Amino acid sequence: MKAYVLIEASAGKTKGVKKALAKIKSARATVVAIDAVTGPYDFIAVLEGPSLDAIGQLVTESIGVVDGVTRTTTCVAISIG
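Predicted structure:
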């Protein structure tokens, strides 16, 4: 499975959040890429894992708890036709 995690950070905390996100490691799911973006979100992370549970666990236990992360929105990639 693949998911995109839209991440909002507190003002003044984006550099620290980026450093912390770059260090995230998990046995069950993988952070494939992290990009800083413009617009309502500060970062978009691409995650891959064997199940929705594995991806959800990475988001809640590793990304959501980073100091400066205020909100995450997870978008699961789907296959159409």
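Summary: DSSP finds two helices and four strands in the chain.
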